[in-house]
């Protein structure tokens, strides 16, 4: 295909504004997929994505479209993830295309992720076509949304297209705008090969599949290639495009997007953003802006049943093959035994991996408190990265500690603003900006990441009845008065419950933690002290009183089936407990005890 007849684009939107539905309609109306194969959310293939209605991995599809000018065009759509955890995936897939459709739900308006994603598109120098979706709904207000797009984002909304991805209205106009408004890609077929590694994943039949965008040169089947970052060399086995099923072709030229396979062993061997060139007569200058995705949230994953440790190792190994941004190493906890310390891009990423282990591998897990990476500066002048509060060195050897900070953007209707400010303030936030867009406020806060990773998003949703939207980016590290708080149950420290906290908030957090644990730990035959401590100093304490009767006592010895049922229940409950010294702690305690409400 000549460059002038190719259009590469992505769709940016806040979650639920209709990105996947619009993609479905574009695919369907161009007969890219036979009617009988059409199913909803065609691009969201993973089960977990479908269930949660989010797109995790970038997906892509090639659409043939004959425009009103009578010419045949090739439209390549890269679908990007819509969640903050995957901002890096968004940014690199943006660099593989020249334009974006900005989808805004016309019953809702601009939201925090609309902003975050559209700024990524602007950064990537995209031409942007606004698409106002859900016009079939009575609450649709196109003028208001157009005003918002101009005021808040600062892009021209006069060419916006009114669409119902549900009914199909405006779909042809959207396809025409892609052809007429978005620029054709540039590139030189005679220059040395320069291709961007946009994404990679493991396919059970083909092995590692690599999504590429050709910038210059031509990539052919059988070519010897090298990855410029890793230096790895491969022979290309297969080249193809997605329609959206895989279809083999012989070559990809400038401006084209497709996949290759090359006997690559594991996804970890590929670096997203890397430049692929020919082994011989290749380019010397890689594409700019490469950076590997870094995990920012860490937690321990332990099997509830310690006999399942090897199964867990196996599950983690398999998942890691397909996810280079997920890191892990073995961990031993005095409380929980053998497990893994795992690093994730964010909390959603953590949940997705944890769910997959539980569901696909059928292993029950104990997840320890999520933690960020602290920079600990020791008095001897050295610095360590602390991923796990349990590894905190003796405080007397520590000079100071720095924590990661984020810049958070929150959009919220006026009436909830007070609650949002209070929440941010409670989480040690520093207000940076407060502006209004219509009846909604946009607040920008500098917040410690560790106050956000746990339940900030849930709290935000609950205090605003779901009306707030939230997005963040990492800003860097700053010193603060941070200490390690330990928790002792029946005088025994439970390492998996220790956490880093700000000194000024330690008492409050300690008290809350002890109270929660008192609720969560069942009573035993003896009395159990529950304490929070900093160093050797106890800062909070609760006592769980002793239990005298066993559960079957109230059955009057009569009803045998009821007695049996109760004992079974007790047994099932026990299974989810871990023993610490003489005390059984239910697994849910490890997460619930940390919630701050
Ligand atoms: P995404 O999160 O941006 O991918 O959004 P989805 O495409 O999953 O859409 C979110 C919800 O909005 C789904 O329930 C869709 O059926 C619905 N939806 C999408 N487009 C329209 C539309 O034009 N009209 C109406 N009424 N509903 C829509
Ligand atoms: Mg979607």
Unreliable stretches covering 5 or more consecutive residues: 45-58
Count of DSSP E strands?
Answer: 33
Task: Round the mean pLDDT to the nearest integer and report it.
Answer: 86
Gap between N and C termini, in Å?
58 Å
Could you outline the blueprint of secondary structure elements for this entry?
Blueprint: E1 6-13, H1 19-29, H2 47-52, E2 59-66, E3 72-79, H3 87-94, E4 99-105, H4 112-123, E5 127-133, H5 142-153, E6 161-162, H6 171-181, E7 194-203, E8 207-216, E9 219-220, E10 224-227, E11 233-235, E12 238-242, E13 246-249, E14 251-252, E15 257-261, E16 275-278, E17 297-303, H7 309-321, E18 327-333, E19 337-344, H8 347-360, E20 365-367, E21 374-378, E22 383-386, E23 398-413, H9 417-426, E24 430-437, E25 440-448, H10 456-463, E26 469-480, E27 482-489, E28 492-493, E29 499-502, H11 506-520, E30 528-534, E31 537-544, H12 560-575, E32 577-580, E33 583-586, H13 589-592
Parallel strand pairs: 1-3, 1-4, 4-5, 5-6
Antiparallel strand pairs: 2-3, 7-8, 7-16, 8-15, 9-14, 10-11, 10-16, 12-13, 12-15, 17-19, 17-20, 18-19, 21-22, 21-23, 23-25, 23-26, 24-25, 27-28, 27-29, 27-30, 30-31, 32-33
Helix pairs in contact: 1-6
């Amino acid at each position: 295909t000549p460059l002038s007849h190719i259009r590469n684009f992505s769709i940016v939107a806040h979650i639920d504004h209709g990105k996947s539905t619009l993609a479905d309609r574009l695919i369907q109306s161009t007969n890219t997929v036979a009617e009988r194969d059409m199913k909803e959310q065609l691009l969201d293939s993973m089960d977990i994505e479908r269930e949660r209605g989010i797109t995790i991995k970038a997906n892509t599809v090639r659409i043939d479209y004959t425009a009103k000018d009578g010419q045949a065009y090739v439209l390549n759509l890269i679908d990007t993830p819509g969640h903050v955890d995957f901002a890096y995936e968004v940014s690199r897939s943006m660099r593989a295309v020249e334009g974006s459709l900005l989808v805004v739900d016309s019953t809702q308006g601009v939201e925090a992720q609309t902003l975050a994603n559209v700024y990524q598109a602007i950064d990537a120098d995209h031409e942007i076509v606004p698409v106002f979706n859900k016009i079939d709904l009575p609450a649709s207000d196109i003028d208001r949304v157009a005003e918002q797009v101009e005021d808040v984002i600062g892009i021209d909304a006069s060419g916006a297209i009114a669409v119902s991805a549900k009914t199909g209205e405006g779909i042809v106009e959207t396809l025409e705008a892609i052809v007429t408004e978005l620029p054709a890609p540039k590139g030189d077929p005679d220059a040395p090969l320069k291709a961007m590694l946009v994404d990679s994943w493991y396919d059970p039949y083909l092995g590692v599949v690599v999504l590429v965008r050709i910038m210059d040169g031509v990539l052919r089947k059988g070519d010897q290639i090298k990855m410029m970052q890793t230096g790895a060399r491969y022979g290309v086995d297969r080249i193809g495009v997605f329609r959206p099923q895989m279809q083999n072709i012989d070559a990809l030229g400038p401006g084209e997007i497709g996949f290759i396979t090359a006997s690559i062993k594991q996804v970890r061997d590929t670096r997203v953003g890397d430049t692929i060139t020919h082994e011989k007569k290749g380019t010397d200058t890689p594409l700019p802006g490469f950076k590997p995705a870094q995990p920012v949230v860490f937690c321990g994953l332990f099997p509830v049943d310690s006999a399942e440790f090897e199964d867990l190792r196996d599950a983690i190994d398999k998942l890691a093959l397909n996810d280079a941004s997920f890191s892990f190493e073995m961990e031993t906890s005095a409380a929980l035994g053998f497990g893994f310390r795992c690093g994730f891009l964010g909390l959603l990423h953590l949940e997705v991996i944890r769910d997959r282990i539980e569901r696909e591998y059928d292993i029950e897990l104990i997840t320890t408190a999520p933690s960020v990476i602290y920079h600990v500066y020791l008095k001897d002048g050295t610095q360590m990265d602390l991923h796990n509060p349990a590894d905190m060195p003796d405080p007397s050897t520590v000079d100071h500690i720095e924590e990661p900070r984020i810049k958070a953007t929150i959009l919220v209707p006026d009436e909830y603003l007070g609650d949002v400010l209070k929440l941010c303030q409670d989480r040690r936030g520093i207000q940076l900006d407060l502006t209004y867009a219509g009846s909604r406020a946009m607040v920008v806060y500098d917040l410690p990441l560790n106050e956000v990773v746990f339940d900030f998003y849930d709290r935000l949703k609950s205090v605003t009845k779901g009306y707030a939207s939230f997005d963040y980016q990492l800003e860097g590290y700053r010193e603060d008065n941070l200490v390690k708080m330990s928790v002792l149950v029946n005088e025994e420290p439970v390492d998996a419950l220790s956490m880093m906290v700000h000194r000024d908030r330690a008492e409050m957090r300690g008290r809350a933690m002890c109270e929660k644990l008192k609720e969560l730990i069942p009573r035993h035959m003896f009395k159990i002290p529950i304490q929070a401590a900093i160093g050797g100093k106890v800062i909070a304490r609760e006592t769980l009183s002793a239990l005298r009767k066993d559960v079957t006592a109230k059955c009057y010895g009569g009803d045998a089936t009821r007695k049996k049922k109760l004992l079974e229940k007790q047994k099932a409950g026990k299974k989810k407990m871990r023993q610490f010294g003489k005390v059984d702690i239910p697994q849910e305690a490890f997460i619930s005890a940390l919630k701050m409400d």
